[in-house]
Design brief:
The protein contains nine helices and six strands. By secondary structure, it is of the alpha/beta class.
Length: 277
């Protein structure tokens, strides 16, 4: 079935063109583009982890969302900018330019159909900057188009209560959180007998520089890990995964409601606002 995790009634490709044309309040209908990657996730997880997480969390959120909130899932964008992983077989990557064009041109198609609220729900940590740049350029070109370049894991969730502090800092790829969540979403695709624990090697100590954060250095995955894992997958459990999924679902239900109610600030269009001086 094409819709996968997504409730059929919320799956945009199942609509007909007359249904799209006649849709009421189209400027406030929330369209959500789940996006991930096809890239290595260690010896124990499938290549589709990021796409599965984005689509799985979105599907649960749309199931829980009130019917009166008009929100639809677009077909998943499986390929992403994954060149940091391309030394590992199986990884498929787009360039930043290609990914940006796919996001831009698909969004322009939806704009022509009358939609004005578009969420990009990205679950791959290697590409938020591409989404953010493309979103701002689109809004600059189409001022009445509101684009939300969002990361799946940034809604309030239970990770801090469930995951070890060291793992929260360094377990950024195929570690405890992702493995636990995949045990909840796609348990038959997780090979726990192959799970490993490997934290990044060679990070600078007593330095302002870090792997990620405010003052990062550029890296590709093989610089930091031989297995492709950054974190401890051996401690993952389905119980943690279920709690993570429930909390992410709750966070995304709230976020979709917020997007539905959101109105783009337009100080430039309000003559009653005086210029400070």
């Amino acid at each position: 079935m094409m819709h996968g995790f997504i409730p059929p009634a919320r799956f945009f490709p199942y609509l007909t063109w007359p249904e799209v044309e006649a849709m009421p309040n189209k400027e406030n209908v929330v369209l959500i583009q789940p996006a991930g990657a096809i890239e290595q996730h260690g010896p124990h997880l499938p290549l589709a982890v990021d796409a599965a997480i984005a689509t799985g969390v979105l599907g649960k959120a749309l199931q829980a969302l009130e019917p009166e909130v008009p929100a639809y899932a677009l077909p998943p964008l499986y390929y992403g900018k994954s060149n940091e992983h391309w030394h590992f077989p199986g990884t498929i990557t787009l360039s930043a330019q290609t990914l940006g064009q796919v996001l831009t041109e698909s969004s322009e198609s939806l704009y022509r159909a009358g939609f004005r609220k578009l969420v990009w729900m990205n679950a791959h940590g290697g590409q938020p900057q591409v989404f953010e740049i493309a979103a701002r350029d689109l809004h600059q070109r189409y001022p009445d188009l509101t684009v939300f370049p969002l990361f799946t894991w940034r809604v309030p969730n239970a990770a801090a209560a469930l995951i070890d502090p060291e793992e929260l800092e360094y377990g950024i790829h195929a570690g405890d959180a992702e493995t636990s969540l995949m045990l909840s979403l796609l348990p038959n695709q997780v090979r726990m007998d192959r799970a490993v624990r490997e934290y990044p090697h060679g990070l600078p100590t007593d330095s302002l520089l870090s792997m990620e954060g405010a003052l990062p250095f550029a890296w590709v995955t093989r610089d930091l890990t031989r297995s492709g894992v950054l974190g401890d997958a051996t401690v993952a459990t389905v119980e943690k995964g279920d709690r993570l999924l429930a909390s992410l679902t709750e966070g995304w239900v709230r976020l979709i409601r917020d997007v539905y109610q959101f109105q783009q600030p337009q100080a430039w269009a309000n003559p009653d606002i005086s210029t400070p001086g």
